[in-house]
UniProtKB/TrEMBL annotation:
The keyword Heme does not apply. It comes from Paraflavisolibacter caeni. Residues 2-113 form the Response regulatory domain. The modification 4-aspartylphosphate is found at residue 53. This is LytTR family DNA-binding domain-containing protein. Residues 130-230 form the HTH LytTR-type domain.
């Protein structure tokens, strides 16, 4: 996977370069200390993964990412945890809080690889089920049984009809947002995704499925109402 690092701190750039050099499937195309300096590399190369610092002098990483017409998968890096929510709302693969440990870095890039591999080799279109690894077992999950999903940063809980306890999966919500059929499931909040045919009540602020109530955020409301009106 071709990757690119943008960070205004020289030590942070060097650390990321060292980490990347230890991962066989990562190829560092360039490291840049200003976002705008990265544009030529992004235009001339197929960048699969962007490591992007958030707080920088001229333009923040978040604002820079919003300007990109062709967006690679992104892992945001920053020393300030308060930016995490906005980062995830931009569908970041992950969010690394400085100082970054190599172990945490490996977790993030493995998640990115899984997601990119999935996008490049999506074969679930005609299937009615998929498999997950949870509680030391492989489980077969039918799409029709899913009620809703709840995101917990690095993990996702999958709630199924007829099963009291949800499955806890080491994948974030972005993965499932792209993985699940878009005409059957819709994200309604940074922390929630629901099965459209399981919805009982819908308002501009909340939805209910069975006895569960979930918030609807402004960011996802239009998509929700567009789908239910089809």
């Amino acid at each position: 996977m071709n990757c690119l690092v943008i960070d205004d701190e020289p030590l942070a750039l060097d650390l990321m370069e060292t980490f990347i050099s230890k991962i066989p499937f990562l190829n560092l195309v360039a490291k840049c200390n200003e976002p705008l300096l990265a544009l030529p590399y992004m235009n001339q190369n197929n960048i699969d993964l962007l490591f992007l610092d958030i707080q920088m002098p001229d333009i923040s990483g978040i604002e820079f990412f919003k300007t990109l017409s062709k967006k690679p998968e992104v892992i945001f890096t920053t020393a300030f945890s308060e930016y995490a929510i906005e980062g995830f709302e931009l569908d970041a693969v992950d969010y690394l809080l400085k100082p970054i440990s190599f172990e945490r870095f490996v977790t993030a890039v493995n998640r990115a690889k899984d997601y990119i591999d999935f996008k490049n080799n999506k074969t679930t279109g005609n299937k009615e089920y998929f498999f997950i690894n949870a509680s030391h077992k492989i489980h077969k999950i039918f799409y029709k049984d899913i009620l809703y999903l709840e995101g917990l940063k690095d993990y996702t809980k999958i709630y199924l009809a007829g099963i009291q306890n949800p499955f806890l999966i080491l994948q974030n919500m972005k993965y499932f947002e792209d993985f699940l059929p878009k005409n059957e499931f819709v994200r309604i909040h940074r922390s929630y995704m629901v099965a459209i045919d399981k919805l009982n009540t819908i308002t501009k602020k909340v939805v209910t499925i069975g006895g569960h109530t979930m918030p609807v955020s402004d960011h996802y409301r239009d998509r929700l109402f567009a789908l239910i009106q089809q």
